[in-house]
Specification:
The structure is a homodimer. By secondary structure, the first copy, chain A, is an alpha/beta fold. Chain A has two domains: about 140 residues, ATPase, nucleotide binding domain (Nucleotidyltransferase, domain 5); about 170 residues, Nucleotidyltransferase, domain 5 (2-Layer Sandwich), CATH 3.30.420.40. The first copy, chain A, contains eleven helices and 13 strands. In chain A, the strands form three sheets. Chain A has a five-stranded mixed sheet with strand order 3-2-1-4-8, with helices on both faces. Chain A has a five-stranded mixed sheet with strand order 11-10-9-12-13, sandwiched between helices. The first copy, chain A, has a three-stranded antiparallel sheet with strand order 5-6-7, with no helix packed on it. In chain A, strand 10 and strand 11 form a beta hairpin. The C terminus of chain A is likely disordered. At the A-B interface, strand 10 and helix 8 of A face strand 10 and helix 8 of B.
């Protein structure tokens, strides 16, 4: 079977991979997401990331079986379009990303929702392999979710998995989405950063912004937060404690509703903070679990930062495997 | 096809029905649930309710294809046992309800979880018929839930649907389950009654308890609450407003997670208060729905008070229909 390409299109970076038939990474690349221009500029940056990943895998994009792209925004996989990807520059309208990229790269391009492809990667190749049902929680700038039931991703009418906007506190904190009391209002990296800036204005002491500047960053990245936690920074500690409490309540609510086998914590913060913090989330769930004598397992995503791109590569049709399945049937 | 019997075993009453092949009710009965004794006494009361419903349908229990029982507590349908049904007298341990009843009534007895059988009744015969996916919300003494996905009830590891214990307010009100901030802590009839008694002790004015006594009740039943609301009673109004706000947040959370087509509101309060209050719940969901341009439909359960008993009857194996399916296959 031919190699497949995968792109995780994020608000900050474009992660590219090329994987073999087993899903093993043979080449990877990481480019910054353009902060100006429009969808066409983003498409060119994706193409550059895809070419570099192919080169690292000693091939070229036209020789790949195809390339999958995990995208934010409203993804229409059939039409090959992405609409209102609000974290990307000038992307309010609908853009035919699939055609633009396949023209540029000479190979078929498949699209999927970023969170769903990352969940699917954990299901097929990562921490989700042992479970029939689990909840993927992608703890990063926002908090995204993927619901796996009977080893399939549940989409509902199209857009299931908005776990970040489950309500953990009626009349609570304002969320970046504009609503009140969402889990993401407490646990999202974006919301935490906004709160950190407010607290500093009110005189809170913290090294968070010093660490940020020292690293040449303009945002409180997961790495910046992790470093501050390591140093026992009081504001970073308070923000993460607050986030974990909200995650515990929201994820426990999802488990009370669906009684799933496991929870898999990924995303920038989830991956960076690792299993000790997944264990803290598990402990924060416990007071809210209706059946607390058999809590679900809580594990860190195994594919880490590359999960989104690897999952995107899995979107590419696998003609060899399909043919085998038909022959066996 | 022979007639089937169904029993809804509640903490207050035992509702019995006999239904025909189309699920139409041919006979019904309603007996109070024993408040003393143990599982054997409850079984005798169930048997009496089943006999009376059969008589009303001009038959006897031994002539039925079988009887289904929807029970609270931990139901093991395969073993035919019910364990720790805490609303029923002396029912902490495991009791072989299936055998006890079939010996007494001369017909096979099938068991199911009370909320799931009521959800299944709405799915097969009630307000759930048009939808591939919906959430059943049984708003009564507690708040139970049934999750229907692709026209099947989702059970998870065994016990999905505990929507009443989704967290709507971290560190919030104490729930009858002992935890804090559950939806049921605000919306359950039991929790509302406890709060009403507290508020009266603090000097709140209300006719709730006068209406209760006038009707010869010892609890604030759904009927008592509905009457007080009709009269504009300020405490009843405040309690229901608080309940609806919590229901809106909790149900919206479930929809954000699962993106279901519809919500069906049943249970004692849901059925009694009807569509105007279902519409109020829909309005209370709106500020929390992530995709608020396409909210799910919110409908009152169609089978009303009898839904649990009718759903229990659907547990009875349908040999005639099965044979036809096999012949067609």
């Amino acid at each position: 079977m031919a190699l497949r390409g995968g792109i995780d299109l994020g608000g900050t970076k474009i992660q590219g991979v090329v994987v073999d038939a087993a899903g093993e990474v043979c080449g990877e690349s990481r480019h910054p997401t353009p902060t100006e221009g429009g969808p066409h500029d983003v498409a060119l940056a994706i193409a550059a990331a895809a070419r570099e990943a192919a080169e690292k895998a000693s091939t070229d994009t036209a020789s790949l079986a195809g390339i999958g792209v995990g995208s934010p925004g409203d993804v229409d996989a059939t039409a090959g379009t992405v609409t209102s990807a609000r974290n990307l520059p000038g992307w309010e309208g609908k853009f035919p990303l699939s055609v633009a990229l396949s023209d540029e790269l000479g190979t078929p391009v498949a699209l999927g929702n970023d969170v769903n492809v990352a969940t699917n990667a954990e299901l097929e190749l990562g921490a989700g392999r042992p479970y029939a049902s689990f909840l993927g929680v992608f703890w990063g700038t926002g908090v995204g979710g993927g619901v796996v039931l009977d080893r399939k991703i549940w989409l509902g009418r199209a857009s299931a998995g908005e776990i970040g906007h489950m309500v953990v506190k009626v009349d609570g904190a304002r969320c970046p989405c504009g609503r009140r009391g969402c889990m993401e209002a407490y646990a999202g990296r974006g919301a935490m950063e906004a709160r950190a800036r407010e607290q500093v204005e009110k005189g809170a002491e913290t090294d968070l912004f010093k660490i940020m500047e020292k690293r040449g960053r303009t945002r409180l990245t997961s790495g910046v937060i992790a470093r501050a936690l390591d140093k026992g920074d009081p504001l970073a500690t308070a923000l993460i404690d607050r986030a974990i409490k909200a995650l515990g309540a929201g994820i426990a609510s999802a488990i009370n509703l669906l009684d799933l086998e496991a929870v898999i914590i990924g995303g920038g913060l989830g991956t960076r903070l690792g299993q000790p913090y997944a264990d803290r989330i598990a402990a924060a769930m416990l007071p809210h679990l209706f059946f607390d004598d058999r809590p679900p397992e809580v594990r860190v995503a195994e594919l880490g930062d590359l999960g989104g791109a690897i999952g995107a590569a899995l979107l590419v049709e696998q003609p060899a495997r399909r043919r085998r399945a038909v022959a066996a049937g």
